[in-house]
């Protein structure tokens, strides 16, 4: 079983790397914050990746036997919102029929996609010592996809898959065998209807709307999606769960200082049983707001070993 923890770049530390390694995790993933500041957070990560200090941390993780990945709400970085003045027609149309640069862009616009794919290739090459699995997600919001005439017949999930398919084909031009995640999350939890996954695109199941204190198998499809249908559609290869068991940013209401974190071991154990029974061989959890500031307030957090539960 592959087990990975998602950590904010500014919380990555030698302590976190030794903790993940000693608990038996197989990898870490760096996750800049999402929401409206996602593009700036990704730029900040890229700046960090140019520094020796940060690269030493990545080297330490790799030398400790951990894989390193990068999980990014990348759309706002790949298609900069500053282009709105020059090319408003390449941005998304909202429910009122108005072009807006608030989230994402129009994935049916060839000019926008051309720039996005060129930037995605450059971005993939900048992710220091990354695995060949790439997570260049759409923006982090609801009702954030395009409703222009060209996109109107496409569900948010269709649009999300169009982007993942195009990203995968492009990144493979510079990194052979690269794979790209389709993030099933919020408005993209439904199975796509009009678009099929391309070679190399895999399911990343992130049930954000679940009740975090009730086993996921007991939850309504309106909250947790239809996981069996999603797996049937995308297939098992590289299929991955991204859950929230250790997401202390969620449990802290995304407001620092972090709150004290207590894992819900019974729910985690039940969920792991469920995910394993479905055939998942890769599970991960956000583990944000558990950095040095957390340790200063509360001491070492209780982090369950997903591989042993
Ligand atoms: Zn559109």
Task: Give the helix level as a range of percent.
Answer: 25-40%
- For the largest beta sheet, what order do the strands appear in spatially? 1-2-3-6-7-8-9-10
Termini distance? 11 Å
Strand content: 5-15%
Q: SS-based structural class?
A: alpha/beta
CATH topology term = TIM Barrel
User: CATH H level: which superfamily?
Assistant: Glycosidases
The topology string of helices and strands comes to: EHEHHEHEEHEHEEHHEHHEH
Specify the oligomeric state: single chain
Uncertain segments of ≥5 residues (pLDDT<50)?
A: none
Instruction: Say how many strands there are.
Output: 10
Task: Describe this protein with a few key phrases.
two-stranded antiparallel ribbon, TIM Barrel, 10 strands, 8-stranded parallel β-barrel, 309 residues, binds zinc ion
Describe what this molecule looks like in 3D:
With 309 residues, this protein is α/β, with parallel strands linked by helices. The protein has one domain: Glycosidases (TIM Barrel, Alpha-Beta Barrel), CATH 3.20.20.80. It is built from eleven helices and ten strands. It has helices at residues 14-22, 38-48, 52-63, 75-78, 110-126, 156-174, 221-224, 227-234, 248-251, 265-278, 292-298; strands at 2-7, 27-30, 67-73, 92-93, 99-100, 133-137, 179-184, 201-205, 240-243, 282-286. An eight-stranded parallel beta barrel has the order 1-2-3-6-7-8-9-10, surrounded by five helices. β1 (2-7), α1 (14-22) and β2 form a beta-alpha-beta unit. The radius of gyration is 19 Å and the shape is globular. The termini are close together. The relative contact order is 0.14. The mean pLDDT is 97. Bound molecules: zinc ion (ZN). Residues 106, 108, 146, 148, 150-151 line the site of zinc ion.
């Amino acid at each position: 079983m592959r087990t990975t923890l998602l950590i904010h770049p500014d919380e990555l530390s030698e302590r976190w790397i030794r903790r993940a390694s000693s608990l038996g995790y197989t990898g870490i993933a760096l996750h800049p914050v999402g929401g409206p500041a996602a593009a700036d957070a990704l730029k900040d990560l890229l700046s960090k990746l140019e520094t020796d200090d940060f690269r030493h941390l990545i080297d330490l993780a790799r030398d400790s036997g951990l894989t390193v990945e990068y999980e990014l709400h990348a759309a706002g970085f790949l298609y900069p919102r500053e282009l709105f003045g020059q090319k408003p027609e390449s941005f998304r149309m909202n429910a009122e029929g108005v072009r807006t640069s608030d989230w994402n862009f129009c994935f049916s616009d060839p000019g926008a996609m051309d720039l996005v794919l060129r930037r995605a290739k450059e971005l993939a090459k900048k992710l220091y010592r990354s695995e060949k699995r790439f997570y260049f997600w759409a923006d982090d919001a609801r009702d954030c996809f395009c409703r222009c005439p060209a996109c109107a017949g496409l569900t948010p999930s269709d649009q999300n898959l169009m982007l993942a398919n195009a990203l995968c084909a492009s990144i493979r031009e510079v990194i052979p065998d690269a794979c790209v995640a389709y993030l099933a999350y919020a408005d993209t939890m439904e199975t796509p209807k009009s678009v099929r996954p391309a070679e190399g695109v895999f399911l990343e199941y992130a049930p954000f709307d679940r009740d975090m204190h009730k086993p996921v198998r007991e939850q309504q499809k309106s909250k947790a999606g239809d996981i069996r249908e999603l797996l049937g559609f995308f297939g098992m290869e590289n299929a991955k769960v991204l859950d929230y068991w250790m997401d202390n940013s969620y449990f802290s209401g995304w407001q620092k200082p972090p709150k004290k974190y207590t894992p819900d071991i019974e729910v985690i154990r039940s969920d792991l049983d469920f995910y394993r029974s479905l055939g998942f061989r890769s599970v991960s959890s956000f583990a944000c707001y558990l950095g040095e500031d957390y340790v200063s307030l509360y001491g070492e957090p209780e982090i369950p070993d997903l591989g042993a539960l």
